[in-house]
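Let's practice the habit of predicting before peeking. Look at the sequence and jot down your guess about where helices and strands might fall. Then scroll down.
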Amino acid sequence: MDVVIPRCCGIDVHQKTLTACIRIQGPTGAVTREVRTFATMVRDLQALRVWLHDAGVTHAAIESTGVLWKPVWHVLEGHIELLLVNPRDVKRVPGRKTDVQDAEWLAQLLQCGLLRASFVPPQAIRDLRDLTRHRASLEQQRTAIANRIHKLLEDANVKLSAVASDILGVSGRAMLRALAAGETDPTTIADLARRRLRQKLPALREALAGHLTAHHRFLLGRLLQQLAFLETEVATFDQQIAEATRPFEDLIRRLDTIPGVNRRTAENLVAEIGPNMAVFPDAAHLVSWAAICPGHDESAGRQRRGTIRKGNRWLRRTLGQAAWAARHKKNSYPAAQFRRLAARRGRKRAIIAVAHSLLVAAFYIIRDGGTYRDLGANHFDRLAPEQLTRYLVKRLERLGHKVSLDVAA
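Done guessing? Here is the structure:
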């Protein structure tokens, strides 16, 4: 195989140690290898950096193993060209496997230019990504606590959720706090309702006449405290993320013009794909990296159904939420696309298709600096008007009508 990088290194990382193999091809074509093992403490990683510098190494490949690659990346970043590679792409032929052989294999693939680097954003975007992902985890915990409150009320025969659409609203929380404090009179608790919920006072009194024991009150009080703590944490992260995204305020404003995308979704998009689309040759590469597109499975000249692969779960979560919101946007292309596909392929596939369209729109907005321009709800009708006409005529004929078409003036 042709040599692309004369001096390179493959690094196999573990929690306590790493194995590095320097591979050098001389002018005569002879290949020399040197393998060393280092600990993963900062002083040892700095010694690794000095060793690579003294050997004249220009490129190094690191296998992505959880978060173990990050300390090595932080020490070497800016000193040599780094490639983070997916373990799926560098698997050896089954057989003998050692850390030394893994490092040598990485170095050989890198020297021949056979490695595909994973996307690693700049440090500022990595910090923003940590913030948005942590906020998403807090929101998931908050949802779990809310579900546990629902289960606890059902166990206590308190049917508050059957009357109030949001038991964690202002009225619902006041009633829950009263229940946790030991109040037992349904009339007194129901009188805490505010605004439109007061129209349901008789139903509230019946719903609150449950069997709430001291055990239930203790659990309810602790769950309400946990919920309040998580909401405070989410608000704190919102402030920190707003400060971190200040340089991208114009970009977030333009992403906010996409149907189904609000400020929080735009912040998550910037954190996951970054503000620079030069790392992706085109929109197809971006959606392929995000795994929001069907796989390609062809054998013996036949195209089989390809399922989507696992990708960035945080980005997929964001796009899925945006797609569900976009399908409610009246007279919009995403809503028309969802209705068109959901009838034939199901709602889940339709949501993935809408998420694909939203990510493509985000790509061009970030790359070209514009805003979202909707194709309109009748976009698919304009693509094939004759086909639509035949379909509608057939439907009318099935209903027993005789259809005659005249060309409009």
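How did you do? The radius of gyration is 29 Å.
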